[in-house]
Amino acid sequence: MSDSGEGDFEFERRFVARDVPAELLEATPTLIVQSYLLAADGYAVRVRVQAPGVPAVQDPGLDELLLLERYVDRVEFASVTVKGPMVAGTRYEAERELDPVMGIEIVRRGPARVAKLRHAVWLGDDGWVIDVFTGANAPLVVAEVERGGPVTDLAIPSFCVTEVTTDHRFANDALASRPFSTWAAELDAELAEHGPVFLSELGTNRRLEP
Predict the structure, then answer these.
(1) Considering the entire predicted model, what is its pTM?
(2) Contact at 8 Å (CB) between 161 and 18?
(3) Confidence grade of residue 7 (pLDDT, cut at 50, 70, 90)
(4) Distance between CA 203 and CA 90 in Å, rounded?
(5) Between residues 128 and 87, which one has the greater pLDDT?
(6) What ranges do the domains of the chain cover?
(7) Which of 28, 79, 145, 178 has the greatest count of CB atoms below 10 A from its CB?
């Protein structure tokens, strides 16, 4: 949720990332496991739990729930969030913190889950998060930058291969019901045929070597 005085809105841009330099990835990132109680037409109700300081390398055979159970004793934060559709990098988002025990129990019972390892890094003038998805959404990696207002005139790291800010297939609520592993070949075919896509209506984009 934005803390910029803009109310319950977030301003972000998101990119598929590949070949992220190893030095940008933390040895012990934060594990995020979230369940979607509602996900339709860009509207979503999400419950998230976070466990900091887990190993960056995980068993690829672990699904989202098994991964949560492995680190359930490390969960320190939980929240419930209501989201609206994304429009050019802006999305309604209202969040409320939950008791971690309550969050864990809801995620355990949730109908659709996503798990990812979140790395934080400062690049250029912006703080970025790099989400390495696990479970059914591996090997997807998404780099995201968020600001207190519209993300314009962005320096985009060279490991960002295409922008997916407005591509609903890459929204976490969509990935919970249609995991990336089931359609990864679609992205490769699109990149081969059409090349990368970057939003042009948000100022000037430039490339940034990390």
Answers:
(1) 0.93
(2) yes
(3) low
(4) 15
(5) 128
(6) 9-208
(7) 145
